[in-house]
Amino acid sequence: MVHLVLVGLMGAGKTSVGQECARRLRRLWIDIDELAVAIAGRPFDDIWADGEHVFRAFERQAIADAVARPHPAVISCGGGAVVDPDNRRVLREHGIVVWLRANPETLAARVGDGEGRPLLAGDPVGALRRLAAARAPAYEAAAHVVVDTDERSVDDIATEVVRRSAAEVTP
């Protein structure tokens, strides 16, 4: 079974593009952050207050649960999910991983002042530049396909994601 997995930094389009791809493919859409919160049974802010490592443990479980589903789904991962080598391996084994890539200025414009996003506190553009530099090797290692999302509509991005991910599973 092959899931369609979307990865990338916050603001890259994982949610909006994921929902559109799920609609087009008639698949369930799974948001890994939401699933991690459901598994934890408490709000994101409470989990994060206990430390990023606590959230990442719930995220690992959410990924394992999502890829174990019996029908192919569209899975939108949190921005840091693929930093963990085990998560990268599991996602690549069970799906076509698409890296939605955008420059930090585009990402910052999409996420605004970063409210509700602890990693962006104070300086969203600077934080996104640092995160992009630090996480690029993990995204590259995880991805079967890279789709740039700068200055593109959700419809246009989803069209490319569906087309290119289908090409990855066809010999």
* Major sheet strand order: 2-3-1-4-5
CATH architecture: 3-Layer(aba) Sandwich
Q: Could you list the spans in which at least 5 consecutive residues all have pLDDT below 50? A: none
Q: What number of structural domains do the residues give? A: 1
Look at the structure and give the CATH class: Alpha Beta
* Class computed from helices, strands and strand pairing: alpha/beta
CATH superfamily: P-loop containing nucleotide triphosphate hydrolases
Number of helices: 8
CATH domain fold name: Rossmann fold
Total strand count, please?
5
What is the average per-residue confidence, as pLDDT, rounded to a whole number?
Answer: 91
Helix content: 55-70%
Shape: globular
Radius of gyration: 15 Å
Proportion of β residues?
5-15%
| Major β-sheet profile | 5 strands, parallel
Order of helices and strands: EHEHHHEHEHHEH
Euclidean distance between termini CA atoms: 15 Å
Written description of the protein model:
With 171 residues, the chain is α/β, with parallel strands linked by helices. 56% of the residues lie in helices and 14% in strands. It has a single domain, classed as 3-Layer(aba) Sandwich (Rossmann fold), CATH 3.40.50. The chain contains 8 helices and 5 strands. Helix 6 crosses helix 7 (124-142). The radius of gyration is 15 Å and the shape is globular. The mean pLDDT is 91.
List keywords for this structure.
8 helices; Rossmann fold
